[in-house]
Amino acid sequence: MKPLLLLSIREDDDAADEEYAAFLRFGDLTEESLRRVRMEKGPLGTVEVDDYAGIVLGGGPFNASDPDDAKSVVQRRVERELADLLDVVVARDLPFLGACYGIGVLGTHQGATVDREFAEPISRVPVTLTEAGRADPVFASLPSTFDAFVGHKEAISALPPRAVVLASSPLCPVQAFRVGRHVYATQFHPELDVEGLCTRITTYRHHGYFEPSEHDALHAMARASVVVDPPTVVRRFVAVARERGAGQHEGRTP
C-alpha cells in the first residue's frame, strides 16, 4: 500500500514533531506509511506523486497573504514549491489535505481572496457543516456542528466558483473547502488535541497570535475544552486516499 506524505513548515522541533505524531495517531499510520518532509530545512525537490496515496500539508507561522517583501526567503521558496506541486495535485485530482496554513496556500493557488478579515484568535469554536459538507465522504461522519481548535491571522473571504465550501464558523465563513473530488483544506486544525494545542501556545507565544501575558489563560482554556470530532477528518481523508489508490490499482474509476 502506498504511503502518504506530510509536508511540514514548522522550524521548531517540538511543534513539528507534535504535529507529525498527531497525524500518525489520528490517521492510524506508522512512520513508514506517513513519510515526512520538513520543507523549511531545504528544497523540496521533485515529488513523485504516483508514489503516494495522498499528501498532507501541515500548519505553521507563515501567512500566505503577507506581501512578498514581508516574507522570508524560506517562505517564498516554500510557497513556490507548493504552487508547483499543487499544479499537479489539482490537475490530477490527487488526494490532498491542507490544514490551517494549507487553506491559505490552496486558496491562493485557486484564486481565492485570502486576507485578515476573518481571522480567529486561539480558541475553541463551533464549526457547522454545509449541505455539501454533510454529503462529503471525508466530512459526512462528523456531527452537523462540532467544536474545533483554531488560531489564525488570515482566512479566506471569497472562493472561486469551482471550490465547494464544506464548513463554516460564526467568525469565519470558510472553515473547510474542496476542489474537485479529492483536494481538501481546513482552517481549523483536524489534527489538534488539547496537548497539541498547549504545545503550540507555548511555541508561538511571541509570534503575534496573542499577548504573551495570555499564555497561562490559553492553556487553561485548552485544558477545559472537550474537542474530539476534528480528527475524524484525518481518519476519513486517509481512508478516502487509500480507497482511491486501490480503485486505480484495480483499474476502476473512483
UniProtKB/TrEMBL annotation:
<dbReference type="GO" id="GO:0016740">
    <property type="term" value="F:transferase activity"/>
</dbReference>
<keyword id="KW-0315">Glutamine amidotransferase</keyword>
<dbReference type="GO" id="GO:0005829">
    <property type="term" value="C:cytosol"/>
</dbReference>
<feature type="domain" description="Glutamine amidotransferase">
    <location>
        <begin position="49"/>
        <end position="192"/>
    </location>
</feature>
<dbReference type="Pfam" id="PF00117">
    <property type="entry name" value="GATase"/>
</dbReference>
<keyword id="KW-0808">Transferase</keyword>
<dbReference type="InterPro" id="IPR044992">
    <property type="entry name" value="ChyE-like"/>
</dbReference>
<dbReference type="InterPro" id="IPR029062">
    <property type="entry name" value="Class_I_gatase-like"/>
</dbReference>
<protein>
    <submittedName>
        <fullName>Glutamine amidotransferase</fullName>
    </submittedName>
</protein>
<dbReference type="InterPro" id="IPR017926">
    <property type="entry name" value="GATASE"/>
</dbReference>
